[in-house]
Amino acid sequence: MDVIQEDVIIEVSPNEYRTLISVAKSTHRALNAEKESLMKCIQDDTKTTLRCSKTKINGTIKRSVEIRGSTQSNVDAARQRIKTIGGGNDNSQPTHFTCIRITDNSIKLNYSKFKEEISKFDKTTETHKRSFMKPEKLHITFGVMRLNDDESRSKAQHILTDCVEKMIRPIKDKYGKVEFTAQGLELMKGKPTKAKVVYAQIESESLQQIANAITKSFVESGLGKRESNEDAVKLHMTVMNVKYVRPKRNKFCWWI
After folding, report:
1. Residue 5: left if φ>0, alpha if ψ -120 to 50, beta else—which one?
2. pTM of this structure
């Protein structure tokens, strides 16, 4: 049986490359969860084949993923995507996200009125009021990613800069001023009794194209995380989030 050196891409033949990487339990579980939808998504995006395995060595379970592809770059892209899932440990929470800042004063004013009306109607406690977004922090989220070091952060900045020149500017030139409509409220996943996020629905053909292009670039690079199997990004503007009631932690985003 061939021995594959871990985390090193080797050329098996002119049209076949492979590597083997060790993964955390959470990453291994995520790849095999929900009828392997995440694994299939990575395979389709990177044009590779993934195979998960578990071996027991001296009483310790070792979890690995073998990646095979026709090019070295495809295998590397799949490897980066997998590492993004768990960041090399069981903490797979995103560290960064891309978004567009809300600067329109009319939207901020309407949001403040909405917040006041809800507070009057519901008689919410001071703690619950803290779940509302601050008007100056309103934004439309595109996608999330996990950047663990200076190298990945530098790579992400280059990707975003490239997106501005090759994707965003052409779309803006086509549509002129990018406009959108924010109306209607929805819950982000889960049952209403367990909802943690309330968001306003965003409608905009031009902004949708920009969001799709940026998110696709980050996902294909292995840095971004696909939120669902849908190609279109769910444009949303968060208005309430219970995480703001919790103790503050460092958070990062990139504005465009």
Report:
1. beta
2. 0.58
Residues 6+ apart with CB under 8 A from 44: none
Task: Tell me how far apart the alpha carbons of residues 50 and 42 are, in angstroms, rounded to a whole number.
Answer: 9
Cα 106-141-87 angle, rounded to 5 deg: 155
C-alpha 162/C-alpha 221 separation (Å) is: 12
Judge whether 100 and 140 are in contact, CB under 8 Å: yes
User: Which one, of 124, 134, 239, 232, lies nearest residue 183 by Cα?
Assistant: 239
In angstroms, how far apart are the furthest CA atoms of the chain?
A: 70
Nearest to 214 by CA among 253, 175, 174, 156: 156
Nearest-angstrom CA–CA distance, 96 and 143? 9
Say how far apart CA 165 and CA 163 lie, in whole Å: 6
- How do residues 93-145 score in pLDDT, each as one tens digit? 677 889 999 988 999 999 998 888 887 776 655 556 778 888 999 999 898 88
Distance CA 43, CA 52 (A): 13
Residue 93 to residue 69: CA distance in whole angstroms: 28
> What letter would DSSP give residue 131?
T
Q: State the Cα–Cα distance between residues 188 and 186, nearest whole angstrom.
A: 7
**Structure token pair of residue 68:** 């095979």
Name, in order, each residue with C-beta under 8 angstroms of 104's C-beta and a sequence gap of 6 or more.
Answer: none
Say whether 85 sits in a helix, a strand or coil.
helix
